[in-house]
């Protein structure tokens, strides 16, 4: 097949920066919360503010996820990303001002942009990538997600753990929180100056045939251009049937009401719930706290956090191999059931006070299982099987669940013990695996048209 993979990989990496921006913004407070608290004089309110400001990002992301379908349809994938780049830059500037109130406002604004970014990334990548290359390029969004977490934790490693007031390096957190603003400005410049091509599917949907062909020429060689046109023409016609009944597209109200969308909507919502009931973002947000609870010092908790997140990062590359060999449904079932066993063992290890190294090993294993299943495979599945508005519903569910789970986790840990939380996550993953086996369709090797047909006429 003739594809211009150099252009494709550069474009995909720049789109996948969206995943980096989300995960970095979500996790950056993990290692620097005490330092921020010292700079802003949180005092006895430290625990309350850490929980509040950690939750404000996923809370803001709920609104960003909800806006994705509307913005991306009106302004295109590229145009809407540039709008949210500006929002992220503004929020990052607000967050580093020396005020607790403005810090909270900035966290919320960057959360709104983050929610949009995480939702639009898989959709945009799927729409510019030929079917044969989706298993290779689809997982890149999860790889950049994990890169954001790794960088956030590494940057927090040199921060002081004592004597915050007298250590000038304590204010290093200001640079850490401004990194999303820097990268958003870069991404904005890239799409404004270097890459002016939007999704061919979006262009065809709005009858911009010449621009769509020009966009396709960036990916397909001349001899295979017709194949790309047929792929997107087919999808845009299918979308036209789905999104119009005398009007341009269905509203969210109609999507929730009409029977044809029920299976797709159910799958999107359930996958969002299952992903977050794995406990992944409690680990991302509170890993330092978790390792301290299990007996590590503040500095060693940061070291353990970095070790496990590097394993998380490496696990994403495994997903590229697995997605080329196995079906999406198969990987999701195997991954969720493996997560169930892993969380069960982690609960036992913490209940009986095994050495902390066993917890480090099990959390590392958790990240590997999550990376190739509810991470890379789930986002690939969402890009393949859901239309934009239902993908935004799924993302909104994910962000809502992050708020709920991350907000309740420290409370339940203090009330019942951390091991009961692990047992709960284990049970949820067992039920999640059963649901995926029962209700999801397999998408591997099928065109977008075939997948949509199974979804609407199941």
Task: Explain this structure.
The chain is 79% helix and 0% strand. The longest helix is centred in the N-terminal third of the chain and has 50 residues, at 46-95. By secondary structure, the chain is mainly alpha-helical. It has a single domain (5-196, 250-456), classed as MFS general substrate transporter like domains (Growth Hormone, Chain: A), CATH 1.20.1250. It has helices spanning 5-27, 33-39, 46-95, 100-128, 134-137, 140-156, 172-194, 200-205, 209-217, 225-243, 252-257, 262-276, 280-293, 298-325, 328-351, 356-385, 388-416, 418-439, 448-456. Residues 11-444 form the Major facilitator superfamily (MFS) profile domain. It holds the Pfam family Sugar_tr. GO terms for molecular function: hexose transmembrane transporter activity. It is found in: Membrane.
Précis, in short:
The protein has 458 residues and is mainly alpha-helical. It has helices at residues 5-27, 33-39, 46-95, 100-128, 134-137, 140-156, 172-194, 200-205, 209-217, 225-243, 252-257, 262-276, 280-293, 298-325, 328-351, 356-385, 388-416, 418-439, 448-456. Helix 1 (5-27) crosses helix 3 (46-95) and helix 12 packs antiparallel against helix 16.
